[in-house]
Please model this.
Amino acid sequence: MLRFLYGSGHFRHLSDILWRPFMKTPARSSAVLFFFIFLFFGAFLSTRLLDFAAAPMLHGGTAHKPVEIPKKPLIKVEYPLNCTAVNLKQTCPRSYPTAFSPEDPDRPSPAECPHNFRWIHEDLRPWMKSGITREMVERAKRTANFRLVILNGRAYVEKYDRAFQTRDVFTLWGILQLLRKYPGKVPDLELMFDCVDWPVIRSNDYRGPNATAPPPLFRYCGDDATLDIVFPDWSFWGWPEINIKPWETLLKDLKEGNNRSIWMKREPHAYWKGNPAVAATRQDLLKCNLSDQQDWNARIYAQDWIRESQEGYKQSNLASQCTHRYKIYIEGSAWSVSQKYILACDSMTLLVNPHYYDFFTRSLMPVHHYWPIREDDKCRSIKFAVDWGNRHKQKAQLIGKAASDFIQGDLKMENVYDYMFHLLNEYAKLLRFKPTVSENAVELCSERMACGAQGLKKKFMNESMVMYPSDDASPCIMPPPFSPLELQTFLKRKVNSIKQVKAWEKKFWEDQNM
Model:
């Protein structure tokens, strides 16, 4: 081997060529020797370091991870009311952004919107083929309280008739908060809004070969015989006349109220408190109250709002009314805003057969979210429901929990805003004209509405004001329309569930010989 390495004439000749120039002087020889010793130790040390770094991986350990640089916390820039500007110039300030893109590149993609968003497609179906012309919008003016125009992210309002209490005020306030939540996202549009309870665009008036397209009219509720476009009601931003807080605050209060009252320890009766004077069906409900002759398992209380306001609303705190296992919902002159408060209580809701719907109730399922009550035989129907629940406590509790989960999740304020956004966005796609601001319209902004407000009106506006654009670049993802089969299956399931309860109830009373 040594001879192979060193005895070969070729190797010796090559060695002489390489080394001879460096070996002519002792000083040069020492420098060369030092240089090669340095290279040797450098190579040896590098090899040991590589072995050390690889050793944990070879023996099943974990290699050292690179140091992670903490993310810079996102700073939310708030845009409070600028009352000085609006007071001095009588104009809306221009400080709020007209466009917004969140800084966080790692934010998750938006989730799909809840089930009730699919009804947006159904509400706008009458205009899917024809679109919406200016002439159609003008025909909706007949009963409208105001015209709303949105241009370049700014709102303009022309008022016609005064609405009851502050319905129009807090509806417009809610729309302004939507513009603050999604600046630059809401498209240009023009619409008419009616703040009265009863829907008026009757579908029968727009059927037949020579029928005209219906006028698009927004309001808070609809029914199966009308085509009004349903929109979230004013009370989501507060109802100062009866001291009902904005929804985001009240939803937290209701959740805390539920936690204070264990379901199994609640009163084993059905509870209702409200104004019976507004409808005959509510007056009929009073007959189901406890009396010397009969106990229908119902505890009914008439609410005197005039007296309540004089006494500081001490007996109308909604969060303190989740104390019974069962709560009754019954419509007033039309649909009632109370439904969401009742459903949020963890109690099994006894829902007297309704005639109207709002923007979320069509997605509720009988015997899953609530228990259906006959309108034509309320007292016996309520008694059967309570008896059934007290015999099947766990099932009754699950029905109550499903409803409150729906309210706390699908109806949280973020989803209310997203519903408004998608409804207005889909509506705007149907417009066949360019929205314009009329000479009688005024620009509306949060400052103009809140800076001069007083009392509970001002308090609720400040409490419900959107202070900065949404953390998400976009709202939830709009679900597709129902297919004909999907819609038919869903509606059939609701009908069959109600029929099943009626059959149970019928058998119960037959067995009682009553």
Notes: The CA atoms of residues 372 and 468 lie 42 Å apart. The mean pLDDT is 86. Residues 26-58 form the longest helix (33 residues).
